[in-house]
Amino acid sequence: MSEQVSGNAQVEDLMRKDYAAGFHSAIESDTLPPGLDEDTVRFISAQKEEPEWMLAWRLKAYRAWREMAEPTWAHVHYPEIDFSSISYYSSPKSMKDRPKSLDEVDPELIATYEKLGIPLHEQEALAGVAVDAVFDSVSVVTTFREKLYEAGVIFCPISEAVHKHPELVKKYLGSVVPQKDNFYAALNSAVFSDGSFVYIPKGVRCPMELSTYFRINELNTGQFERTLIIAEEGSHVSYLEGCTAPMRDENQLHAAVVELVALDDATIKYSTVQNWYPGDKNGKGGIYNFVTKRGIAHKNARISWTQVETGSAVTWKYPSCILKGDNSVGEFYSVALTNNFQQADTGTKMIHLGKNTRSTIIAKGISAGRSNSAYRGLVRMNPGAEGARNFTQCDSLLIGDQCGAHTFPYIENRNASAVIEHEATTSKVSDDQMFLCQQRGLDAEKAVSMIVNGFCREVFKELPMEFAVEAGKLLEVSLEGSVG
Amino acid sequence: MLQINKLNAQVEDKQILHDLSLNIKAGEVHAIMGPNGSGKSTLGNVLTGRDGYDVLSGDITFNGKNLLEMGIEERAREGMFLAFQYPVEIPGVSNMEFLKAAVDARRKHQGLEELSSFDFMKLARDTSKQVSLDPSFLKRGVNEGFSGGEKKRNEIMQMMLLEPSLCILDETDSGLDIDALQVVASGVNAMRSSDRSFIVVTHYQRLLDFIVPDYVHVLAGGKIVKSGDKELAKELEAKGYGWLESEVA
Ligand SMILES: Nc1ncnc2c1ncn2[C@@H]1O[C@H](COP(=O)(O)OP(=O)(O)O)[C@@H](O)[C@H]1O
Ligand SMILES: [Mg+2]
């Protein structure tokens, strides 16, 4: 159809925008030579002057990992990863003696974050958002610490928590995602470098949004961050992570683990705006994003995952909830956008253990160019999940006719009183919709971003305000070159 | 306002419009009637520049400019408006957001400032009442879950907000009950002015009782086979199109 063809050509033009975060900063760093063995693990642990128990924990993970195989069930294709060609640790030189204040941080680093639109000076920072910045493998700076401290909230690099709050780390690290959970989680457990640690005391409502910005800078380094959030009884926290990386022709590995613990009556809202470098329009380069995220919700607790995934060459990610306590609630709101040659296999697992547990899954997949995106979700009702409910809605939006969208829902119901509802739709940005917008005077680019944003509305409304705007803009940029 | 001169146009390698000429002056209302498949919607699509509708020969001047050199959105911003025969839904995009973007685009083109959200909201609410749409429709997704009649009234509301110079209404009356028809017609009549023209495509004489045209053209087989005044519409209503088609063949 000539109409279809010309429409698609226009979409493709729009999709060809540049990756704005693709610069590389000239910062001197100490980078470990490529390769992974027990000595690598010992080296990382020694760099961080870790106590013996932490090293033992890592080594246990490493030994388990050696016996494990890379998973192959996901709907993604990429050349085999040579784990011996990756460097497992890189640290900006100036971080050797961790800076005591922002004045001691390499100005080049601060400039890098400013380029990303993340001011680290507190007086300039977004009001009401505390930021932890992780550059390559090391946490650079955490803002608003004092204000948080007054409320009893701990928000610090996990490497620091190992020293200052060993009892909490020992108790909870690996309690949700065990070392041997899966291949990438085991790898992360062995070599994780840094990440954020959050502790909200009993009954405290965290006075501001917490956020971590991850940045991969060095060539050929993997990034393995580890985040642990503990919300004590009746507490409340909202946390956001963002991530970017320079444009490189080589693929880079990112294998993170996030663990959430929501004790009785606590709420954790975890939002992600993932914008790792997706590779160029021919599919060269980009981040392999293999991430394990899981939360455990105790009695009446609520865990809510919201993610906007626009980056990475390959994404493998299933933020999950274990609804252990009675009446606990799990939510997963996701927008995954793939363009050019990107591949995403993402979704969630809702494991209902307690009575009257409830879960909601809203997943929006947008595929453009020659990309492929898959939703993969498991809903399991265990025998004890009396009266539990799940509602799942999966919508796919296709832009152009060379992309694909796939849905893999897995349902395991072992309790007759549990109710599971599943709805799925697939639609296209149609020529009719484009024409309507353009006939009303909107240019094609504005039209596509408006249509796509409309498609994502249910998810965006779950994001903290500041980030909903950011997410909308990110979609617009990621979509460049793609109208149909 | 609009001069169409010997227009030949095709869709998917099939020629639909043949040597079509039409001259519309400012302030005039032209009705275009004709059997299904005669090319009425095609004419609207060619005029508005829709992809896939190719002009083989002929020329079109709109407000003194060469229309065929202009892109879809440029034509729209210059004041050309098409009320769709089948308005499409855009889920999740609120009518208000959509309308504001459209009005802002048109105003920007005219060198005017964007309306503040507050002013626009007020304007949109007033306009929705004029077409008997509850203002709550402004918050809903564009045409999302609207009934057929609501979609058509939404089109007229868009037309009123955009204040186009040339309005093309493609079978806006089809599927409307008499009340809705009157709402649409009074919306159009309220907008009639000496510097605005209309092309009203319809099957039925009924609409032309409410929107009284200056000229009536009959399109058959992609050609204008007969032109006249409003009496022609009545004749068509009585006799059907058969006699004209046989004249052409
Ligand atoms: N997008 C299209 N693809 C294929 N054929 C079309 C398309 N649009 C119109 N046509 C054909 O052009 C002719 C005129 O159609 P149309 O302009 O819709 O007529 P009308 O509006 O008068 O009923 C018909 O034969 C129709 O099948
Ligand atoms: Mg028609």
Nearest-angstrom radius of gyration of chain A? 22 Å
Which two chains touch over the largest interface? A-B, 30 and 36 residues
Q: What spatial order of strands do you see in the largest sheet of chain B?
A: 6-9-10-3-11-12
Strand content of chain B: 25-35%
Q: Which ligands does the model contain, each kind named once? A: adenosine-5'-diphosphate, magnesium ion
| Tally of individual helices of chain B | 9
Helix fraction bin of chain A: 10-25%
The secondary structure category of chain B is alpha/beta
List keywords for this structure.
heterodimer, A: 484 residues, alpha/beta, eleven-stranded mixed beta sheet, ten-stranded mixed beta sheet, 24% helix, disordered N terminus, B: 249 residues, four-stranded antiparallel beta sheet, 12 strands, binds adenosine-5'-diphosphate, binds magnesium ion
Report on the architecture of this protein.
- The complex is a heterodimer of chains A (484) and B (249).
- With 484 residues, chain A is an alpha/beta fold.
- Chain A has eleven helices and 23 strands.
- Chain A has helices at residues 2-15, 38-47, 52-66, 107-115, 145-150, 158-164, 166-172, 183-191, 431-439, 444-460, 465-478; strands at 29-31, 90-92, 129-135, 138-142, 154-157, 196-200, 209-215, 226-231, 236-244, 251-254, 257-262, 267-274, 286-297, 302-309, 314-317, 320-323, 329-338, 343-352, 358-367, 372-381, 389-398, 404-413, 419-428.
- In chain A, strands 5, 6, 8, 10, 11, 13, 15, 16, 18, 20 and 22 form an eleven-stranded mixed sheet that branches. A ten-stranded mixed sheet of chain A has the order 4-3-7-9-12-14-17-19-21-23, covered by helices on one side.
- In chain A, a hairpin with a 2-residue loop joins β3 and β4 (138-142).
- In chain A, α2 (38-47) packs antiparallel against α3 (52-66).
- The two termini of chain A are 12 Å apart.
- Chain B has 249 residues and is an alpha/beta fold.
- Chain B is built from nine helices and twelve strands.
- In chain B, β1 and β2 (14-24) form a beta hairpin.
- At the A-B interface, α1, α9 and α10 of A face α2, β7, α3 and β8 of B.
- The structure holds adenosine-5'-diphosphate and magnesium ion.
- The site of magnesium ion (MG) has 5 residues of chain B, from α1.
- Adenosine-5'-diphosphate (ADP) binds at residues 11-12, 16, 34, 36-42, 52 of chain B.
